[in-house]
Amino acid sequence: MRSPAATLAARAVYSKTVRRIPVRQLRNLVQEEAPVRFPRTLAMLGVALSTLIFPADAQQARQDSAALASAVSTLKNDLRNYVTAQEQYYAAHSTYAGTAQATTLKPSPGVTVVVLTFSPKGHNAVAIHKGVPGLVCAIWVGSHSRPLDDPSKEGAPSCRLPG
Predict the structure, then answer these.
(1) Are residues 41 and 120 in the same domain?
(2) Which of 6, 20, 39, 144 has its CA 20 to 30 A from that of 130?
(3) How far apart are CA 156 and CA 137, in angstroms?
(4) pTM for the full predicted model
């Protein structure tokens, strides 16, 4: 919703009654609105110009963002499945598996899950996606250290984004 000042200014610019609004009144309205709207307007103008000048870059950025979000979701899901598979292995062997392949885990296409450490008291692992270089997600359970040194909760996957 436009402010009264913006509405009045828009009417002055786009109508045939420009001469009816005193110049002093228009100047005051513009000066009142400018400090508040200038940064936001400038940012929107920059985004609009960059998408007009570099449409391929804007489309590529949207695709890259979507690919990253999809990869993060896939890795987190696979790590949750890894924890479930480790619990099943533990129930049968009284210790956790040393490799993801020793469990019933079937990672998604392009995903590699690597067990870093394991013992009867816990385990930790990382997962990577070949489609997004630099993206690493990790999970830990029990008394083992947190692979990414982050404040995540036990059994909750966390990720470090590329770059």
Answers:
(1) no
(2) 144
(3) 10
(4) 0.61
Amino acid at 43: A
77: exposed, middle or buried (Cβ count in 10 Å: 0-12, 13-18, 19+):
middle
Count the alpha carbons within 13 Å of 96 in the hemisphere toward its beta carbon.
25
Helix (H) or strand (E) holding 119: strand 111-119
CB 125 within 8 A of CB 82: yes
Residues of the domain holding 37:
19-53
The secondary structure of 5-48, three-state, reads HHHHHHHHHHCCCHHHCCHHHHHHHHHHHHHHHHHHHHHHHHHH
One domain, residues 43 and 93 = no
| Domain count within the chain | 2
Same domain as 36, residue 85: no
